[in-house]
Give the backbone structure.
Amino acid sequence: MSGIVYGVGVGPGDPELITLKAHRLISEADVVAYPAPDSGDSFARRIVADFLPKGVREIPMIVPMRVERFPAQDVYDAGAAEISKAAKAGKNVVVLCEGDPFFYGSFMYLFARLSGDIEMQVVPGVSSLGAVTAAAQTPLCAREETLSVLPATLDEAELVERLNRVNAVAMMKIGRHFAKAKRAIDAAGLTDRAMFVSHASLPEQHACPLADAPETAPYFSMIVIPGRDAHV
Amino acid sequence: MSGIVYGVGVGPGDPELITLKAHRLISEADVVAYPAPDSGDSFARRIVADFLPKGVREIPMIVPMRVERFPAQDVYDAGAAEISKAAKAGKNVVVLCEGDPFFYGSFMYLFARLSGDIEMQVVPGVSSLGAVTAAAQTPLCAREETLSVLPATLDEAELVERLNRVNAVAMMKIGRHFAKAKRAIDAAGLTDRAMFVSHASLPEQHACPLADAPETAPYFSMIVIPGRDAHV
């Protein structure tokens, strides 16, 4: 009897924002796997550190930070092989995923490699979107408004062109694209409605109007522009 | 000492998909408030029914179904007044919200009425988006893809025009707009990538390619079109 591989969303950072189901599966796991940077600890693992059972086997997948945009496919090849071996030996494997597994998550690389071969179940989690709007204390979108999630990695002209046609916006992957993102939002005339949030749901959480944001943005930051119907 | 009003996301339907924080706040609530239809029970209340403490005071806000698109503002006026009175008497009030409170949620109507006057905190929840992609077993978006959340209530020409310009799509509020939504997706040449999901995370959950979907769609259904980078 093969085990099951669970892709489990562990939410935006506050350990209390994992679901009851994530808590149960993690507490009962034989094996946990998670992405980790080449220096420092894994964010996904840190969120659930207090819930890991004693003696659980851990499979860290070390993803070099510098290839963030083009994930090292051999890391996922090796991780998938190790997870597959454990599952085929009858173990249940819980893959820890920041936020929600299928929302811009690296879990998709494992899913693509394993889903034809092994039973996989995805447990949705609270995404960064919900945590960011809660921190900014603003509804995001309402009624017939559309929501556009835009990675700030797009080039400036495309960002402006898209921003000219949107209702509500969440702009992700800010980091080193922050200056460009601010210029594009300004060019589209949306700065007055834009909020900046970093480290949503964590103790160091910071939320403010985009115009008052610090010069540089950490990796875990987002800009949200509520739709006009949602704007309170 | 006034109490706090918590807008608590209770997730997409499976009671195990509420967060540990939602579970704690609901278990300790003095008062809970929630929207309810004029016939049948409240979906948000049903999700957490097993967690409600004995003797908790309940404030249902009866929203007539026929004015779904233009919520009865007097219902929220009355609900807000009752919630405000309880909070000013020192009670903590938990407002139960389907999915995530600030993602197309009616909680915004209470937030708009109360947030200047009373301490309010929002607890994000698992949104229908995460539950739907988990049910469809498909990543939604990856890398530099944009995600467009489109209400099917938009008119057909606008839907087609937007669909012609997107990467990943989640189309919500299907219900009686299902035939129009399918025509628009077909016109944009996206039917082969589209998945239909109803009742995500509930026992009656159903997921299939859009081309194989039933003639009519229930209120709790969604169409997702994964981005090409995310498509496994």
User: Anything to note?
Assistant: Chain A touches chain B through 59 residues (CB under 8 Å). Residues 5-123 of chain A form a domain with the Cobalt-precorrin-4 Transmethylase; domain 1 fold (CATH 3.40.1010.10).
